[in-house]
Amino acid sequence: MVTLVKREVRGQKKTILDFVKRKTEVSLEDIRESTKINYNTIRSAVISLTKEGFIEKIGRGKYKIKK
Fold first, then answer.
1. Domain limits at 37?
2. Is the pLDDT of residue 23 over 80?
3. Is residue 43 part of a domain?
């Protein structure tokens, strides 16, 4: 059994997480347009935030904050 431990989010991951918190659902392209962060950095951060339990995938390329 794998236990995920929520930890502090810093840097660009925090910027992305804060952006997702303000929206009902968001795509990677929405994040890129609003934050000007590199697309590959966004992809990596979103995958990490999903695995850590902060956000959840709701469809192809769509994410929302996990409640």
1. 12-65
2. yes
3. yes
